[in-house]
Structure formats: C-alpha cells, structure tokens
C-alpha cells in the first residue's frame, strides 16, 4: 500500500502562486501514475493534473498554461506549481497514486484564492 502526505495549501490572492507537494511512502515501486484532483464545495471531484512513471503529463483544460505538475524521483514526491490563481481554483486538492489494482488518496489540502 502507498501512503501520501500533502502540503503547501493556503490562502492566496488572485493572480498569486502556490506549490503543493505530495510525498509518497510504502509500496512506491508499484506506482505507475500520480496526480491531483480537486473538489470545490457543492461540486464533484475533478482531475487537475496527472504525471505517469514515464513522465507523460495531462492537465484539465481549466488549468493548462497555469499549473505545472512535476516529480522528484529521489524524494518520491510530486509537485503541483499553481500560478495565476483564480477564485474558481478554490477547492480541497487531493493527491492520488495509482497502483495496478488500487488508487491511493492523500488527506487533502485546502487552497483558497481570495482577496
């Protein structure tokens, strides 16, 4: 099993930046993809960005050009750099890690974009 610990959320003004981190531990060699979902109040959880073990990335249309997902293999950590943040980016952001038969989730970190 994989354990995920997120950090980096907080309050930021519109146009600002934040970087989220997700550190994986446990059965990390079985992970083939990691990424981030988010869930705003009253809305369904939506995919934000994914990065595969081969380095392929995928982004939601709403964040393309503003968010960048990356990974540090030595630290078993995935990052989400979020720039030009908008109020509609406000949500709880959840890290996930996919193994062949299981999707593992982090506890979530709150991102609030407000002036």
Overall outline: globular
β-strand number: 11
Q: The biggest beta sheet, please?
A: 7 strands, mixed
Average of the residue pLDDT scores: 96
As a whole number of angstroms, the C-alpha radius of gyration is 13 Å
Low-confidence stretches: none
Topology:
Layout: E1 2-7, E2 10-12, E3 18-26, E4 33-39, E5 46-52, E6 57-59, E7 67-72, E8 77-82, E9 91-99, E10 102-105, E11 109-113
Summarize the structure.
With 115 residues, the chain is mostly beta strands. Helices cover 0% and strands 57% of the residues.
Q: What would you note in describing this structure?
A:
The chain has about 120 residues and is an all-beta fold. The chain has strands at about 1-5, 10, 20-25, 35-40, 45-50, 55-60, 65-70, 75-80, 90-100, 100-105, 110-115. The protein is globular, with a radius of gyration of 13 Å. The model has no long low-confidence stretch (mean pLDDT about 95). The strands form 2 sheets. Strands 2, 4, 5, 6, 9, 10 and 11 form a 7-stranded mixed sheet that branches. It has a 4-stranded antiparallel sheet with strand order 1-3-8-7, with no helix packed on it.
